[in-house]
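Hi V.,

You were right to ask for the full record rather than a summary. Here it is.
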Amino acid sequence: MLGTAQWGHGYGVTNSVGRLSDDTLADIVAVAREWGIDAVDTALGYGDAQARLQPFAHDFAVTSKVAAGGDVSEQVREALLELGLDQVHGVLAHDWDALDPDEQRRAASALTRLIERGDARTVGASVYDSAGVASAAHAFRSTQSRLGVIQVPANVLDRRLDSDPELLELAAQGTQIVVRSAFLQGVLLDPASPRANHPDVDRVLRVAAESATSLLALCLSHVKALPWASHVVVGVTTPEELNEIGATWASVEPHLADPSLASADLGLIDPRRW
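Predicted structure:
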């Protein structure tokens, strides 16, 4: 699943390119098509990313994120206009973890009405941890709504959801579960990152070097092995990066990274705390 945060602004602590040029976007989309990538992750909060996605939007299943604490219907209307679409594949509540239980139930109902109106095929939430997964499942269940998609963070450092029972149950029920932060905003791929001197990151770098495994292969084989994952969002700044990701994904075997690589430092694995 192609991420578009870099399309609207200079997203990512290892992003030295900044907001991507029009030519770069067109080249990235061309590579995505070559690798059969048919889904895109975007959001109203990504600057003008949705407007820049418009020329290509019809070629992808587009999932957009909105602030469920606001007017969901109006935000989706705005998103559809920016994207030039009559319907998106999915809509996620971007601010789910900031809502209280009553607001979450109201958000679940508001999101479900998007399906009834034909604005979206599926709806759900973007969460950060097992509590977010559980609250999303409960809110949709209690309003007799279907949690069709949920987005969660996971990588070789962030192992909190590896065996989460709620995610396993949701996957068994057909919920689409999307992994984000597979590279921790690029930190896990860049030995020169400002956070590469963190002992937990350094341990990952050393394990990859000692096993003669590329950092990219280590990261992708791990998320490819997660038992509940249906999609992985990858954001890139060049078509070459996406081509390398595509080739590596096609070649690596699913393999969960050693549990000893897990980090318990929320200040590292949760980018909201950076």
